[in-house]
Amino acid sequence: MPPTILLLDDDAQFRSSVTPALEAYGLRVVSATKGSIARALLDEEEPALLVVDGLLPDTNGVVWLEELRADGFETPVIFVSAFYRDLTTFKHLTSNLDVLKVFHKPVAVDRFAREVANAVSAPTSLTPAAAPKPERAEDRVLYPEEGSEPKIDPQKAKHSYLSLLPVTADNLTGAIRRVHAEAERTSIVSEALRQAHDLHGAAANYGLREISDAAGRIEAELRQLQESGRLDWSAMFESIDAVRSHAAEASGQPASAAPLAAAPPSVTPAASFFLHRPVPAEFVPSLLVLEDDPAMIAYLRSAFDEVLVDVKPVATVDEALKAAGRHPPTAALVGWPLGDRESLPRFVQMFRGLHRCGQTPIILLSVDDDPHTRALAAQLGVDIFLPHPVELVRLHHAVSSAVERSLAPRPKVAVLRDPDAASAIQDAGIDCILFLSLDELLRELDVECPDVVLLGSGVTAKQTPAIIRMSAWDTDCSLLSFDDSALVDEPQLSEVLPRASGWLVRLHREAEAVARLRRQQLRCSQTGLLARPAAVAGLESGLSFAQRHGHTYSIGLLRGTGLDALDHVAARRLRSHLGRLIYGRFRREDVRGRWDDDTFVVGFDGSSARAVVEVLRRLQEDLQTQRARDPEQLGFMHAAIGLSSYPLDGDTSRSLILTAHARLEVAVERGADSLVWR
C-alpha cells in the first residue's frame, strides 16, 4: 500500500491543486477540513506524514500540533500557512513541535509535492530528534518575554496585526497598480494574488470581515485574469478602496490617499502615496546575513524562499568581511548583539572600506529597541533599523527598500573649466568629475559616461556644445550652463541653470532623470543585447513555453573575467566585444541579454544541459581563437560560465537564475574560461 498523507486544510482550492501532484508521486492522500476530523483519522489511517494548515475552522494548526505532540504522536509534519510568518512561531514549530518544513501560501505545487515526497521517502534523515531540546542561553537573551513553552497570545497577535494593516493594504495596492501597468507579467500577477490570498485568510481569522471579503474579491478577480486574461478594473479599484479604508479604520489611522475607484482606467504604478514595492524580480539581489543564531538563519531562508533573494549567511565579522570582499552584496543584514557588542562598530567601519561596499545599505536587526541603541546605529551609518520580534512584512519591506537604494541610479556630472562649481557639486554629495580642457573631456566622455555636462563660466567657445554632442556616447546626455555664461543663447543647450541657491537641486534632478532613462532602455547601447528587465521577461516566457510543451530549458550566465586590471577604455572595449560575440553566436530564438556590467545572460529552449554545454564550449573556443589571432588587443578576454537547466535544477525562473548565479561564482573562483553546470 502506498504511503498515506493526511492533508488537514479547509481550503478546497489548495486541496484540489496539491492532491493530484502528491498522487503523481505515488502517495495516497486523505483529507480533513477540521482538526477534530483529522484527529479521528490518525488512528484509522496511520499516515506517514501530516500536512497541517495554520488556520482551521475549529482551531489553529499550531495549537492542534501542540496537543498532538503532548499526546505522544511523533508523526512527521509539514506546516502550511498564509498567516503564521513570524520568527517566534517558526522557531516554535521547528524546534519544539518537530515540524520538518514551513511553507507559506500560495505554494509552488510541484515543488511542494516534491518536498512532501522526499520527506516521506527519508523521514528518519529529516525528522528532528523527539527528545526535548534544552533551552539555550542565547534564546533567553533573544526572547526574554518567552517562557520555556511559548504560546501564541491571541490579543497580542491581533494588536500586532492591526498595527501592520495599513502597510499590508499599501503593499496590496502597490501590487495591484503593478498588475494594471504590466498585466502580461505572470510574476507580477502571482505576487498580487499571493498578497490578496494572505490578507483574505488572515483578516478572516481576526474577525475583520469587511477586509477579508474585499481581499477575497480581489483574489477572485486576479484568478480570473490568470485564466481568461480579462479583469473588471472598476470592481478591482472599488475592492482595493474598501481594503484601504477598512484597514485605516481598524488600525485607528486616517486614510492616506484618494480613492482609486475615482481614478481613470489609465492609473499607473506612480502612486500618490509611498509605495512599498516587493523586491524587483529582474535581478538577483544578494543579502549578506551576519548572524550567529541558527534559528534566525533558518527563518530568513524560509522568509525569502519564494523571493529572488540570494541569502548568504555568515557567523562572524571576519567571515562577513571576507565574503563581502570577494563578492560585494546588494545589502547586508546584521543581527545584534553578536558574540560581543563591539562587533557592530568594527563590522560597519571595515565593511564600508571594502571595494564597492561604501554605499551598500546595512539593515540592523536589534534585540534592544531604545533611543540609545537607535542613536548609536544612526551614528555608525546603519541605513535601516529593525527591532525584535521581526514581522515578515516589515522584513520584506526593509530588504526591498535596501535593494532599491542600492540599485538607485547614481547621477554623474562632468564639469568643464569651473573648479568652484565642481567643488560645490561634490560637497552636495553628487558624483562629479572636473575637466580643465575640452580635449580631456572628449577623451574621457565615452569612458565616464556622465549624465550631465555642466559648461562652466570659463567656457566661451560657441562650438563647444556641438562638439560635445557629436562625441557623446548617448544622446540623452544633458548639456547645461549658468545664466551668466556666454553660451546662454546657444541652441544646443537644453536648459539654463541660474547661479542661485537652488541650482544644485535642479542639477541633481536633471542628472537623476537622465540616469533613470538610461536604466529603462530596453537594449544595451554597447552590444545591442536586451537589457536586464527585458532579458528576464524573455527567460520567464521561454521557461513557460518549455513547461507547456514538455521541453527542457537552460539558463546561462557568462561573465567577462580579468577586466578589473584594465583601464576603463580597454575593459569597455572587451565587454562590447564579448557581447557582440554572444549576439552573433546563438540562435535568434534564444534569449540573449545584458545582465550587468561584466555579465551576459542566454536562455536555450529544447536542448539538454549537455548539448547546451557543448554550445558554450564552442563559444569559449571562439574566444580562444580570437585571443590567439590578436593577443595584444584580446589577450585579457576570458569568460566564466554558470549554467542551470529545467527540470534538473528547478521549475521556476527564480530557482534557475539563482542556481546559474551560484555556479557562475564558482566558475569565477576556479579561473579563466571555467564552466560549471552541475
Structural class: alpha/beta
CATH class of the largest domain: Alpha Beta
Shape descriptor: globular
- Portion in beta strands: 15-25%
Fraction of residues in H or I helices: 40-55%
Strand count, sense and closure of the main sheet? 5 strands, parallel
Number of domains: 5
CATH fourth-tier homologous superfamily of the largest domain = Reverse transcriptase/Diguanylate cyclase domain
Strands of the widest sheet, in order across it, are 2-1-3-4-5
Feature tags:
25 helices, Rossmann fold, alpha/beta
What does this entry look like structurally?
By secondary structure, this protein is an alpha/beta fold. It folds into 5 domains: 4-137, Response regulator (Rossmann fold), CATH 3.40.50.2300; 154-251, HPT domain (Four Helix Bundle (Hemerythrin (Met), subunit A)), CATH 1.20.120; 286-407, Response regulator (Rossmann fold, 3-Layer(aba) Sandwich), CATH 3.40.50; 412-519, 3-Layer(aba) Sandwich (Rossmann fold); 532-676, 2-Layer Sandwich (Alpha-Beta Plaits). Helix content is 49%, strand content 15%. It contains 25 helices and 20 strands. A 5-stranded parallel sheet has the order 2-1-3-4-5, with helices on both faces. Strands 7-6-8-9-10 form a 5-stranded parallel sheet, sandwiched between helices. Strands 12-11-13-14-15 form a 5-stranded parallel sheet. Helix 25 (653-670) links the parallel strand 19 and strand 20 (675-676). Helix 8 (154-181) packs antiparallel against helix 11 (233-251), helix 10 packs antiparallel against helix 11 (233-251) and helix 13 (317-326) packs parallel to helix 14 (343-352). 40% of the residues are buried. Mean pLDDT is 78; it is low at 123-152 and 257-282.
